[in-house]
Amino acid sequence: MKIFKSTPRISFSKERYIDIGFLLAVSFVYLGLSLYQIELPGLYGDELDKLVPTVDLLTGQPFLAARWYRTIFGFRILLSFTDRIGPILSYLPMPFILLFGYTPFALRFSSIICGWLTLVFAYSGAKIWFGPRVARYGIAITAVSPVFVFLQRMGYYNYGPVTFFTSLTFFFLARYISKRNSYDLWAAAAFAGIVIDTALQGIWVITGLVLLALLFWTTIRPRLRDLVIAPLIFLLAGSPIIVMTLRSGGAFKRVGWRGGDSGSLTLSGFVDTLSEEILHFKGMLGGLDGVQFGSIGKDFRNSWMNYAFGLSILIVAIFFLFASDKKDFVRRNAAPVIITLFGLFLSGFLLKERVSYQLIVLWPFAVLVIGAGLAQVHQFLGRLGLITIGLAGALVITQANVTIKAHQLLSQVRGRIFTSSQIYPLVDYFKGRRELRPIAMEWGLLNQVYYLTGGKILPDAIHGWWPKDGIPPGDFKTAVLNRLEKENNVFIFFGPGNGFDRYFHFLQLARASSKKVYSEKVFYENDGTIAYRLYRVSKSDKLISPKVECFELVPWGRWKGEYFGNKILNGPPLKVRDDGDGFLDFNWDGRSPDLTCGVGSDNFSVRWTRGIYFRRGTYRFTVTSDDGFRLLVDDQLQLDKWFDQPSTTYTVDVPLSAGSHTIRMEYYQTTGQAVASLSWKMK
Question: CA within 20 to 30 Å of 246's CA: 340, 603, 608, 657, which one?
Answer without folding.
Answer: 340
